[in-house]
Specification:
This protein has two helices and nine strands, in the order ββββαβββαββ. By secondary structure, the chain is α/β, with parallel strands linked by helices. The protein has a five-stranded mixed β-sheet with strand order 1-4-7-8-9, with helices on one face. α1 crosses α2. It starts with a strand and ends with a strand.
Length: 135
């Protein structure tokens, strides 16, 4: 599993001028699932994400987690994190999990984040013109 985590004051996903996911202060997470990933990796990454201390405390030190600040998380599926650009100009996605497995682990990751009592918004982006919401 690969995560790209961005600390945000707010974030939203817009498709064809429609907001399909939006959060206030917290994390925007792009999540990619690889062929060898399991629930064990998801469990580990959820714990790291929830406990990651990158928000400022009252002294201005990065000492607080998303949970400490009562932040929110927007999780967006992103199979392109597994793009292999080592040969030619067309990326290979052979290291990305097949859609069925990727969706299963994506949903599992979301469930585990929600179990941490953090507000979670989720969106699966299937193409640039289509999206499906999950709750």
């Amino acid at each position: 599993m690969k995560l790209v985590i961005q600390r945000v004051t707010n974030a939203k996903v817009t498709v064809e001028n429609n907001i399909i996911g939006e959060i206030q202060k917290g994390f925007l997470v792009l999540l990619g699932v690889g062929t060898k990933d399991t629930e064990k990796e998801a469990d580990y990454l959820v714990k790291k994400l929830i406990k990651l201390r990158v928000f400022e405390d009252e002294k201005g030190k990065m000492n607080l987690s998303v949970k400490d600040i009562q932040g929110e998380i927007l999780i967006v599926s992103q199979f392109t994190l597994y793009a292999d650009l080592s040969s030619g100009n067309r990326p290979s996605f052979t290291n990305a999990a097949k859609p069925e497995k990727a969706n299963e682990l994506y949903e599992y990751f979301i469930k585990k984040c929600k179990e941490e009592n953090v507000k979670v918004e989720t969106r699966k982006i299937w193409s640039t013109h289509e999206s499906r919401a999950t709750k």
